[in-house]
Amino acid sequence: MTPDNPLQHKPSAARKALVLGGKTGLLGQALAHVLKEQHWDLLCPGRDDLDVFDQTSLEAYIERHRPSHLFNTIGYTQVDQAEEETRAASRLNTSLPILLARIAKSCNLYFIHYSTDFVFDGKKSIPYLPQDEPNPLSVYGTTKLEGEQGVMALGWDKTLIIRTAWLFGPYKTNFVDKILTLAATRRSLDIVHDQVGCPTYTMDLACNTLALVKAGAQGIFHLTNTGHASWCELAAEAIACTGVPCHARPISSADFPQKAVRPAYSVLDCSDFVRATGLTPRPWIQALRAYLFEKDHACLTDPRD
Ligand SMILES: NC(=O)C1=CN([C@@H]2O[C@H](COP(=O)(O)OP(=O)(O)OC[C@H]3O[C@@H](n4cnc5c(N)ncnc54)[C@H](OP(=O)(O)O)[C@@H]3O)[C@@H](O)[C@H]2O)C=CC1
Ligand SMILES: Cc1cn([C@H]2C[C@H](O)[C@@H](COP(=O)(O)OP(=O)(O)O[C@H]3O[C@@H](C)C(=O)[C@@H](O)[C@H]3O)O2)c(=O)[nH]c1=O
Description:
By secondary structure, this protein is of the alpha/beta class. About 40% of the residues lie in helices and about 15% in strands. It has helices at about 25-35, 55-65, 80, 85-105, 140-155, 175-185, 200-215, 230-240, 270-275, 285-295, and strands spanning about 15-20, 40-45, 70, 110-115, 160-165, 165-170, 190, 195, 200, 220, 230, 245-250. The site of dtdp-4-keto-L-rhamnose (TDO) has 18 residues, from α6 and β7. Belongs to the dTDP-4-dehydrorhamnose reductase family.
């Protein structure tokens, strides 16, 4: 903390969240919804409202609105495109979180940032612990890891990095939606079956993030739903839930060439989360059913309403 920074002397509201990515992101919008449901004051500036790369504007925004918590859900998440747009990926996944952590430190904000299972190489066959050695296989994974390392190197206590994986949820098209759209017009779909991870519902991740924050968690945590699946199993389950007559055919990654290499196994061990909060995330299949039910019945409102 820099003692001569005028921002840190101002008391901040008890629970006021600045959610970057909260206006348009897959996770950001879920987080905004849950924060609002839990009666937090909420700030969700989009690209047109705030240039997050401009430190002066960002600090002025923080001084004006005085949030207590800074959630960063902005990221470069196009895994294949990142292989060619290394600089753009690095700017969003590495430089931005470091800048935000620095500002959080100088303004005394609790900083919550998200990272990924793709920091691991997938050579393990039991769930990855937060302290396991990362070894990313892709530009996306590398830039996310460098973001984590840069943030942790600043040594700001009130920092929480949550590694999560395989997100699905409302507000923005995701893997499950893509599969269901394809399944509506196809008799069969070829889906990779040799990549195993843990599908995670954004709404559960948002609730569980707030439980971690409430517990005052600091450092790196793994947080997903529980269980594991291949992409093919996830697709098959989503198709089965909706009753569409489409067959999910298991294939190998070699038969679905992509620019970026994905880990073969990236299940995350969430036991630190369980210990810190006393909660156990629900199984991914149950969360998937909840998502499809809520989607079908339009249960969710716009997070900004
Ligand atoms: N999706 C997944 O399966 C997983 C995601 N994660 C991590 O979780 C976090 C959230 O991911 P997710 O919700 O999927 O991300 P999305 O791609 O859905 O959202 C990214 C957000 O970042 C914003 N953004 C992108 N570029 C800029 C920019 N130059 N300036 C300002 N805002 C920008 C986007 O705004 P706009 O709409 O205006 O472009 C959008 O709000 C990321 O850190 C990601 O690495 C981790 C594991 C799995
Ligand atoms: C649409 C489709 C995808 N696939 C495969 C491709 C890929 O290996 C897998 C998942 O597809 P996607 O490309 O949507 O997912 P991908 O971009 O690999 O997802 C990752 O995104 C980043 C942001 C993360 O952090 C990770 O946790 C993970 O969620 O499914 C098929 O095999 N058949 C298909 O018809």
